[in-house]
């Protein structure tokens, strides 16, 4: 996807806890998505990747495939308690993705400072 400068927009996968959280933590993921967009980057929100009828394993397969095509990973608060987010972080590290832990880090990454 081209940005306004003719380059390719960098993609940021949003990772955080879902299981056992009301509404699967959609509000936090929506916040993360808004932060990524505000930074001028392209978000990948796992809530848009999975069918509600899918089990955890099938969703993780779709999520991991999407993560592998991204440039960075944004960790939402509480990620430490999520098996899925821990797996996504492990994969991001192994693939050399930039790992972002807050909106400030996201801004620095968007400005090319990370």
Structure description:
The chain has a four-stranded parallel β-sheet, with helices on both faces. It contains four helices and four strands; from the N terminus they run βαβαβαβα. The chain has a domain at 23-69 and 96-114. The protein is an alpha/beta fold and 114 residues long. Helix 2 runs parallel beside helix 3.
Main features:
4 strands; alpha/beta; 13% strand; 41% helix; single chain; disordered N terminus; 4 helices; 4-stranded parallel sheet; 114 residues
* Number of DSSP E strands: 4
| Main sheet specs | 4 strands, parallel
C-alpha termini separation: 21 Å
**Proportion of helical residues:** 40-55%
* Beta-strand content: 5-15%
Radius of gyration: 13 Å
How many DSSP helices? 4
Structural class: alpha/beta
Shape: globular
Averaged pLDDT: 92
With strands numbered from the N-terminus, the spatial order across the biggest sheet is: 2-1-3-4
Low-confidence stretches: 1-6
Order of helices and strands: EHEHEHEH
Give a short overview:
Helix content is 41%, strand content 13%.
Topology:
Blueprint: E1 11-15, H1 26-38, E2 42-44, H2 56-68, E3 72-75, H3 83-95, E4 98-100, H4 103-110
Helix pairs in contact: 2-3
């Amino acid at each position: 996807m081209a940005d306004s400068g003719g380059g390719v927009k960098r993609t940021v996968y949003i990772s955080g806890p879902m299981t056992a959280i009301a509404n699967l933590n959609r509000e936090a993921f929506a916040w993360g998505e808004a932060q990524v967009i505000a930074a001028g980057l392209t978000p990948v929100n796992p809530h848009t990747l999975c069918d509600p009828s899918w089990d955890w394993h099938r969703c993780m397969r779709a999520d991991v495939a999407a993560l592998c095509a991204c440039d960075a990973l944004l960790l939402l608060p509480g990620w430490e308690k999520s098996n899925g987010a821990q797996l996504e972080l492990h994969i991001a590290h192994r693939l050399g993705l930039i790992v972002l832990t807050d909106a400030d880090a996201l801004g620095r990454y968007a400005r090319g400072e990370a």
